[in-house]
Amino acid sequence: MQNEELKTIITELLPAAAFEEGGEWLNVQVEAADLLAFAGQLRNRPDLNFDYLFCLTCVDWKTHLTMVYHLRSTQYKHHLVLKVKLNRDQPDVETLSAIWRTAEFLEREVYEMFGVNFLNHPDLRLLILPDGWEGKNPMRKDFEDPINMIKL
Amino acid sequence: MVEELGKTTEGDLIINVGPQHPATHGVLHLVITLNGETIKNVEPHLGYIHRSIEKMSESLTYRQFIYVTSRMDYLSAHINNHACAMCVEKGLQIEVPERAQVIRVIMDELTRIASHELWWGAMAMDLGALTPFFYAFRERETINEIMEETCGARLTMNYMVPGGVLQDLHPDFQRKVKEFIQLYKRKIHEYDELVTGNIIFQNRMKGVGYLSPEDAVSYGCSGPVTRGSGVSSDIRKHYPYEIYDKLEFDEILETGCDSFARYLVRIREMEQSVRIIEQLIDNIPEGDYQAKTKAVLKLPKGEFYQRVETARGELGVYIVSEGGTTPYRIKYRSPGFSNLSVLNKIATGSKLGDLVAMMGTLDLVIPDIDR
Amino acid sequence: MWSLSQIAGSIHEWLSTTFNPTIALVLEMVIAGVAIIGLFAVLGLVLVIMERKVAAWIQIRLGPNRVGPKGLLQSAADTVKLLVKEGMTPDGADKFLFNLAPFIAMIVAMLLMAPIAFAKDFQFWDLNIGILYVSSISSIMVISILMAGWSSNNKYSLMGAMRSGAQIVSYELSAGLAILTIVVLTGSLQVSEIVQSQANGWWLFKGHIPAIIAFVIFMIAVTAETNRAPFDLAEAESELTAGFHTEYSGMKFALFFLSEYVNVFIVCAIGATLFLGGWMPFHIGNWEAFNHVMDYIPSSIWFFGKTFFLIFLIMWFRWTFPRLRIDQLLNLEWKYLLPISMVNLLLMTALAILGWYF
User: Fold this and answer.
1) Do chains C and B touch (3 or more CB pairs under 8 A)?
2) With the CA atoms of B236, B172, C59 and B200 taken in that order, what torsion angle do they form, in degrees rounded to the nearest 10?
3) B215 contacts in A (CB within 8 Å)?
4) Chain C: which residues have CB within 8 Å of chain B?
5) What top-level class would CATH report for the domain B50-370?
6) How close, in Å, is residue A33 to chain B by CA atoms?
7) Which residues on chain B are in Cβ contact (under 8 Å) with A74?
8) What is the mean pLDDT of chain B?
9) Is residue C60 included in any domain, yes or no?
10) Å from C154 to nearest chain B CA?
């Protein structure tokens, strides 16, 4: 499906969705509150069928955090980039691990690296960082660690 | 550890496999709950080799960060570099000369064969057969020598630069690659005689580690893991990059969904890689091996995503640029991370000995998972 | 002609003429004890270097080639290294059992040497239930493994020990039944008589197909009993790091290692004795000239030749096959080998009663 067709369907589904121009694929900006329901429709609607979440990450924009979900349909081979703006001080967002199982692991990584709090996540614990790292989020831009220097 | 203890019932045994364990091939740490020999739960604990490559890349220029990624999936270092180079080229809209493209593809496929060779030997070793490892290394050594001659390194080649490759091919390259193909074709039947056809091996692999096609997609698996479940997922076929769309090769699909299917996919993939190299090795076009680029690269503001098919699956490089000389944010979508997440699903209910076989067929490379 | 029995005879003669009978007997016992310990050590060294050379040959590499000519002194150097290494005992281990286990393994291996006929008339103890003695003593081996696994206070060791217990107890049955098929033919449990009964041909050839089946089952069962690949589940290094001897180091580990190799030697010696005629030369019916030539080869060479051939077979298994899973291992024994060997034993009994063997 082409980007234009996707755009019309998505506007039907979620009138509040904002589109970003530029970039290889269609970028859709949604509110954190709409995310779970919207993602469920993207996955389950037969003509969209976004069954493959191939990249889940977060970008720290210093003023806010942006969750970025790269979706694709193995059936139709169309792509969609889903973006959710989060408050930097209280980044709460619903987990998508019930829709795409891969999100469970990827969200755990984002949780410890960016401190994003995934609501209703089945197993939100540290995955990569050692115990006692809660609260310090190494991938945020303002993270400084004088002992374990990361920046080059 | 404490949380896991809470979940267990009396009579369960919790063992730590790793971070130092012969079967984890690195520093993967699995906390396994066992009932007798039967696995009840597998809980991966990661981070023992986490080097924060993503954070590090944020302070490296677009020419530099490529070389850090060799250390992610060190068995397909070349393909990692390739993905990064292509992502930068996409941002700068650099046209890569055809000679460079062909060289890159040949190198990618050689890397893929080398990686699968190592996997084959290591997986047989997991199953208790030590000899295949040495047979695998016999062929792999030839590839490493070819790499060493042209790239100057055997494992972390660092041969890709934005716009092409670092230097031209060694004059002996074509001859050596042809010799390797001859050697490979002469020796490949030994692999089947020694391992594939072995009755003990087949009994250990068949029906073990069942991964349904739906789960394979939902868990975000990629590469031979999904193709062993019959899901077509080859990036080279579906979203071709470089000259892959002009090449003749098959995407290997097996419908067994078990460890044996994943094994067969990788074995047959090596043959397809040889097929690709055979098509290209006599037809390397003349011309530049590198496009003319500025000394300091600045990506325009925006987001760029490039994916390639590594030996383990789909590697994605996601660059968020603010227009500077360094990436603002970079994310590597590593195939191993998603493939690992499926381990608990497929291992629950099977025997401890089979866990090792499953980890073998998932082809986990720990630095790729940890990044 | 030079032979071991003549040397033994002349020593015996010299001792009994020089000393009074009691002292002579005591001295003979001491000599036998020293000989067994010496043999134990030498066998360990020889088999380790042999295993490494065989492995290297199968794995297209050179193997040890630095210490001594062609690396032949490598295992001696390794022994020295193991001797000077610190023998650690883990904190939570049951110290008494932990230190006892390797010695039990060694003592069992030594006891098993007693009834083996190394050459014509050269045997430490030709007791009338020799074969029964071997199969019963070899069962004690499992106790040392269980002891090592339990006392190490290590989960991997415990799992290795439990696997090993299940495995050895099961495969003992098949090995025992395979041995019985030959005992049925000879009508004796005495090693010397079993060897003597093969003067006109080895049981492998005389006993028709049942003997061949019994031989194959015996080789599979003893491979499992000695915990060697493809049945090395007790120490499956990719699953259990090192299984029951994970916590052992230094000389205590070396004793396990040595006893494993000596056990391999013993089971192969028993196999050679039962099926391949022990020290008996290869004879073919009435070919007088051929038989005469064969008789010229010393009996000890026949015995060791056959034994080392079987050892080579077992090493070949190890470096070729992947490991079985625990349920497959037990299935193989209880569902296939045991029924087959039972039927085979009945068949052999019928053959023996009807006299349908050569």
Assistant:
1) yes
2) 20
3) 101
4) 55, 58-61, 155-156, 159, 163, 229-230, 232-233, 236-239, 241, 319-328
5) mainly alpha
6) 23
7) 217, 231-233
8) 86
9) no
10) 10
Q: Is residue A42 part of a domain?
A: yes
Whether chain A lies against chain C with 3 or more Cβ pairs closer than 8 A is: no
Residue from A52, A81, A100 to probe the interface with B (highest B Cβ count within 10 Å):
A52
* Cβ–Cβ below 8 Å for A68 and B318: yes
Q: Measuring CA to CA, how many Å separate C207 from each of A144, C186, C217? A: 81, 11, 15
Q: What is the rounded CA–CA span in Å between residue C17 and residue C23? A: 11
User: Which candidate in A101, A116, A139 is best for mutational testing of the B interface (most B CBs within 10 A)?
Assistant: A101
- For chain B, list the contacting chains (3+ Cβ pairs, <8 Å): A, C
C-alpha span between A54 and A71 (Å, rounded): 6
- How many domains is chain A partitioned into structurally? 1
CB contact under 8 A, C322 and B131: no
Torsion of CA A44, A47, A52, A54, to 10 degrees: -120
Residue A110 within any structural domain of the chain: no
**Strands in chain C per DSSP E:** 117-119, 122-123
| Cis status, amide bond into C115, omega within 30 of 0 | no
Whether the predicted interface score ipTM is above 0.90: no
- In tens, the pLDDT along B303-327 reads 888 889 888 888 889 988 888 888 8
Q: Tell me which residue range forms the domain holding C107.
A: 85-354
Instruction: Kindly determine whether residue C239 and residue B352, on different chains, have CB atoms separated by under 8 Å.
Output: yes
Q: Domain segments of chain B: what residues?
A: 50-370
Interchain pair A138, B219: CB under 8 A: no
Report yes or no on A7 lying in a domain.
yes
Which pTM does this prediction carry?
0.86
Residue C320 lies in a domain: yes
Return the ∠ at Cα C38 (arms to C32 and C42), rounded to 5°: 145
**Which strand ranges, in their side-by-side order, compose the sheet holding B38-45?**
B13-17, B29-35, B38-45
H/E stretch holding B41: strand B38-45
Answer whether B274's CB lies under 8 Å from B108's CB.
Answer: no
Token couple for B209: 């580690």
Q: Is residue C58 part of a domain?
A: no
Give yes or no for residue C1 having a pLDDT over 50.
no
The answer to the question of residue C343 being in a domain is: yes
In a domain, A25, yes or no: yes
Q: What pLDDT shows up at residue B1?
A: 43
Number of folded domains that form chain C? 1
CATH number at residue A56: 3.30.460.80
